[in-house]
Structures are given as C-alpha cells and as structure tokens.
Amino acid sequence: MAVRDLRLKPHLTLLVLTPSDFSIAPAAGSTAQLDWATSTTGQSVLDHGQSAASLLPRDDDVVLVLPPRAVSWHRLALPKVGSTRLRAVLDGLLEDRLLTDTTEMHFALEPGGRAGQTVWVAACERVWLRSWLQALEEAGRPVSRIVPAIWPLAPLGGPATPGNDLTPAPTLHWAHDEGNQVWLSSASPLGVRSTPLPDGGTSAFGDSAFSGLSTTAGSVSNELLNADPDTTRLLADPAVASRAERAFNQRFELVPRPSWLLQCAQSDWNLAQFDLSLSAGARRGQRLRQTVRRLRSAPVWKPARWGFGALVAVQLLGLNMAAWSERNSLSAKQQAVTQTLQQTFPNVTLVLDAPAQMQRELSRLQQASGQLAGGDLETMLGAVSQALPGDGLAAAAVAYTPGEARLGQWPGGEDTLRSVQDTLERNGWRVRSDGAELTLQPGSRP
User: What is the pTM of this model?
Assistant: First the structure.
C-alpha cells in the first residue's frame, strides 16, 4: 500500500481511530467505542487503546479510518466538467452500479483524480459517515482527514485490465476481525473485495451492500496458492492470524491493529470531499477551537491557567503602579513650574499655563526696560538677516503683527525660501511656509 510522508511538525501528535468492531454499525454518540493509536513521527505507534469517543486522547490531528466493508470502489472515466457539476455527474454514472439511491451516498475521488480522467471512486453511506463525524465533533475530537482501511493498489506496469495477464498485479490480502466474523480484505489494481473466512462464526451485521467484488473462500484459497510471492503480501491481525493460516494454509505476516491504522493514516487518500470537504481553513479552525477548549478546561492545563492568571494580575498591578508613579512625577514637575512662576512674578496669582504666562511676563519686563523681545519686528528681521544665504536676497514684502511677521516676494525663489526656513527652524524659530511667503513666530530659543 502506498504511503506518504506526513511531515509532522515537532511535538504534533497524530490520533488515528476507527470503530472498535471495525463494522458498518452506526455511531452511538459520545459513547461510541473506537480503537485508536497515536504517533508523533507518523512511522511508529506511540500509544494505543480502546475507549469511548468522549474519552479519546486529545491530539492535534484526528484521522478517521473507515472499515473495508463500509466503502465500495468503482472505476470510472469522468467527462471533463466543472467541479460544481462533478458530483451530479458521479450520481449519473454510479446510479446503475449501486443498490441504493446515489443521493444517500458519499463519493470521493482517488488522490490527484479529476474530471477528464479514469479514476477510482470511493462510495460509502453518507448518513453512517456523518453520524461518526458528528459523534467525534460532539466529543471535542473534530476529524481532519477521512481515509479507507484498504484501497485499490497502483499497478507495477501498465494499466491493469481483467484480461491482461501480462501486467504485474500487486495484491494485498489482510485478515481482520469484524464483530464475530473474520474477513479477508484483498486489494489489487482491479479493486477491493472482502471475503468471509469459513468457520468464523456469523457476522453481527450480515452481508453489506459495500462488500466490493465478492468471491468464495475456496476461490480465494486457490488464488493464494497460485499467487506470485514477489507481488503478493499476506497480512493478518494477530488475533485472527491462526484462523487465516488454517483457512488458506498460508503464512500471514502479523500486523497489529494500531500499526495498520497508522499505515492507513500515511496514505494519500482523503475521503473528505464534496459536501464533507474539510478545507485547510476548516482544519485550522477546528484545531484552534480544540486548542481553546483544551486550554480552557483540560485538567492538565490547570497549573498553566493559574500561572497565566497570576502573570496577567502582576502585569496589571505593575502597569497601575507605573502609571501612579508617572502621575506623581508629572504633578511634582507642574507644581515646581508653578512655584517658579509665582516666586519670580509675585503679581501672577492665577496660574493657568505657567510656561506661556512666564513668557508673557518676561516680554513685559523686556519692553519696560527697553530691550527687544523675541516677538518684536527688529528681532525677527535680525534673525531673518542672519539666515539669508547671501546679500540682496531679503524679502521685498513684510507684514507685521505683534508676535508674528509675514515675509514674501523673495528674489531667490523656492531655493532661497527653503534655505531661510531651514536656518530659522534650526535657530529655534517657528516658521510656516505658505506658497512664496514665510510666517515667522518666536520659538523656544529667541
């Protein structure tokens, strides 16, 4: 059976599960029993067991394996149609091949299969499959992939046909238990079939409409006797290996159920297609919801939740303490500025804006003593004169109001205007450019 590289991320755990009796019985809600296996590498089983859906391990990626008799296989040549019409086309092509209404079936194409090709189509009962998906969803284990337990094999040479004996045809036979019946499921390039073994008791579920290509145990035995050992593999669950060996007088290689489930999860198959499609975005959403549920309620995360709560509380306390300290520091600075203003200018009794009031009082003192203030015209013109890049470049138009001078009609154009503005700003003046005119106001330094 072809396998694929899971490319699991470090510490990403894979949970593979299947109905415990490997049957086509419907799911029984959160109490449904499932066999499961976990792996962190995708190559070896980390842990395995059997439990109800609600008691399954909480893992990152959940893969549901469908029993062999729950899936039938059909080889179809698909016409070239759009993806939106493909499902309707499958209904028409499979209408005469199935014993039930196609609207009650779920279909899935082989990996890489698309319209315009001859592909294998897997079919299973939609209500049955939905019941298992819903049971796992309700148990907090949403499924990210759906894979078959066995599927048609790829031929070793050219296309395989019923009458083409020259084409090497690899075959896989797997003996397994389903309820009270032992089955031999066989896969080859021609399809999949499930055969009940003799002396295995009566199946708890009877014959299935999804048994694939039926055959008698005797004809299977003859097929095994004439099989090419280079292209045929005989595998069996350890619990039924002795019965299979007695029935066919052949040696079977032992493969425990957990290892088989892991091999199924490594395949390229994903039956979650069409109306059951699980997109990458949906899988990410499922994993996010699963993570949130785990962090919120899982007992193993209780210390982490307490630690996180304590960390948040400490951070909030620290932020409040820092804000309180900053407010006290700012208040102390404002009080110091207010005291400096009132000590320097005792006539100021009401303090609204200490820096602005101190600047006005200082300007009054300068005017009273005959000194030029920063907002006087002479001071502003002197600053402009020092900022000119050369002689004869002074502004031809000057408009003055107390504390503000507007200078226009510069002979040097925009270059002179930009040079004067940059120099004035470096010297601490507030300068605003409006077309070809500069507006000058005292800044912090004059």
Answer: 0.57
